[in-house]
Amino acid sequence: MSMLQDIEDYVVYFDDLNVGDKFQTPSRTITEADVTNFACLSGDFNRLHVDVEYANATQFGQRIAHGLCVLAIASGLTTRLPLIKFIEKTLIALANLECRWVKPTFIGDTIHVDVEIIAKEETSKPDRGLIVMRRTAVNQRDEAVMESEWKLMMRRRA
Questions:
Q1: How far apart are CA 39 and CA 43, in angstroms?
Q2: Contact yes or no for 104/60 (Cβ under 8 A)
Q3: How far apart are CA 18 and CA 15, in angstroms?
Q4: Alpha helix ranges (H) inside the chain
Q5: Is residue 6 a part of any domain in this protein?
Q6: Integer angstrom CA distances of residue 41 from 64, 68, 69, 100, 104
Q7: What is the mean pLDDT of each run of 10 residues along the chain (158 residues)?
Q8: Is residue 107 part of a domain?
Q9: pTM
Q10: Contact between residue 133 and residue 84 where contact means Cβ atoms under 8 Å apart
Q11: Taking a C-beta distance cutoff of 8 angstroms, is the pair 46, 76 a contact?
């Protein structure tokens, strides 16, 4: 078996994760196309996102990306982590998601996601457990722009 095949077969269970484990995603720049496409996809044409003149006159001084667009991009960046590939076979469900936006994300900002396991909970079923994963989107100025907690139900080792 090749080393590449060994990596493909690697599996992470609930039991393998520890509170305090940390990971960082690659980064990605938020583009004009992201905002425009998200407005079309979601139907959210709020002027703060799509109207340059209106947005320039707001407290932000420019257009901002939709919060849900930033959440979606952060989710996508997180799926690029090897960890997510390794838990695919043991992931049962997304049980809960809480999110707040602490600063605006502007077109041209480059974000990455800091991921940390902040809690583990056993369930009434011995074959599964819940992990709570904090995902913080951070811009190029090292400012948190979004904080979210994802509760994932995972399989336990037999």
A1: 5
A2: yes
A3: 8
A4: 3-8, 32-42, 47-50, 52-56, 67-79, 82-87
A5: no
A6: 17, 11, 10, 21, 20
A7: 62 97 98 98 97 97 98 97 94 98 98 98 96 98 98 95
A8: yes
A9: 0.92
A10: no
A11: no
- Give the count of domains, the chain: 1
pLDDT tens digits, residue range 34-47? 999 999 999 999 99
Place of tokens 């838990």: 87
Residue 138 tokens, joined: 């951070």
Q: What share of the chain is helix, strand, coil (3-state, %, to 5)?
A: 30, 35, 35
In Å, how far are 59, 62, 76, 104, 158 from 27, measured between CA atoms? 27, 22, 11, 17, 36
Is 106 among the domain residues? yes
| H or E element that contains 120 | strand 110-122
What is residue 5's predicted lDDT score, i.e. its pLDDT? 55
Pairwise CA distance, residues 70 & 63, whole Å: 14
- Which residue segment(s) compose the domain that 151 sits in? 12-30+67-155
Given this model, what pLDDT does residue 7 score? 63
Q: Is the separation of the CB atoms in 137 and 70 below 8 Å?
A: yes
Say if 45 falls within a structural domain.
Answer: no
The domain that holds 79 is classified in CATH as: 3.10.129.10
User: Token pair of 74, please?
Assistant: 């952060």
pLDDT of residue 8: 67
